[in-house]
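dude i think i finally got it to work??
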Amino acid sequence: MSVEVKDASLPHPDHDNPNHARRWLVLCIVGLAQLTVVLDATIVSIALPQAQLDLGISDGDRHWAVTAYALAFGALLLLGGRIADFWGRKRSFMVGMIGFAIASAVGGLAQTGVQLFAARAGQGVFAALLAPAALAILTTTFTEGRERAKAFAVYGAISGGGAAVGLLLGGLLTEYVDWRWCLLVNVPVALFALAVTAPIVRETKAHGDVRYDIPGTVLVALGLGALVYGFTQAEKHGWDSAPAIGFVVVGLLALGAFVAVEKRSSHPLLPLYIPWDRNRAPGLIGSLVIGSVLIGGTLYLTFYLQIVLGMSPFVSGVASLPLTVAITVAAGVAAQASTRIGPKVPMAVGPVVAAAGLVLMLTRIDVDSSYWTVVLPALLVLGFGIGLMIAPMQNVALVGVRDHDAGAASALVNAAMQIGGALGTALFTTIYVSAKSSYSTSNPAAHPFSVEVSGYAHVFGWAAVFLVIVSPIVMALVRVTKDELPAEGAVGVH
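look at this
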């Protein structure tokens, strides 16, 4: 018989939460899991040029190493949250970690591009179970205001800094060990997390309706998958080709059917009042665009730094860090500004600033451009603009949401970023390949690097267009005041 020791220093020592006594250890475990999920989005981007050469992946297909992960993660994130609540948060956490480790091992040992893409999709599937389970454990473990705020601050710092860790670790492993270890490194991390989770974390579940919206899950996954595949067919056969049009139409029809199913479902995967709200809709659109730019657009920054400027993987990882630093600084500025003047201004200004950074990049990059005078200033402006958008958009996502649906609303913002990344990566790849082809035709004697730069510039240009479109939508629809923002803000899962 074991006796649970209670912390007498707390004002309310009696808790029905079985994880309360060991809450700080639980925070360490959850933080480790979150770091694994977040850094995996950027660690592979740094390794991708080497993986492409090793596995013989074409320029048109290499994006699947990023797209497969983001698409599976984003499409299944809402379902993963429901499973974690109903099946058990500890159980879902451990199964998600085991599956993530197995998929990582398969990817690290891949001998073909298809094997790598399948493994990345597998990572996304299990990340969609692992990430919401980790957040649910954290939310139910820290229930008192001051400690909860501290725990969420740590969690948010890990979410924001994980991308930077991925850039550095990916560069180190690719340059000094092998690109495969960018995936294999997850295996020992997962084994350690499992070893400490089993004896420390206690099981918790949600009560009430435990039915799953399987039709909704199938339709949203089918719709998003068809859209992404349609974009890739446009790159191969043209936008007016039957495969491109056909898959895009199938995707839109499936998403339309998803809306119809959710309207009639007594236990919807996504209560439709959440995305339909005039304040939340701009935040979700902004999250889609942020995901497309951060996951899709900046992938081509990696290629530019390594392929054109000749940086090593590690140096290119370090060279990308100012983007993360600028995002972190601006997110803090935006959070403070939102409490003083409301979220509308930073939400509207941020896209314009970020677009200016991309315009600064596309108008000045060349085969022999200087990182210090061209790339670095553009990264700082881009990152600052994106940082201005993120915090207020996540906060607005929770305004007016019923307590029962708060998890779904928060997960939807993060799912939107991942889905935006998947769609953006596929779309930007089509733009990149088309621009290269057009430039080569017009300039048959051009240097290969000049052709590459032409493709990158078009990607940055279209990313800037998508960002600018967000501002008028925010100005027209958002009506939230500073007094309506949730006191604790939103916590991102990414």
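DSSP finds 17 helices and no strands in the chain.
im so relieved honestly
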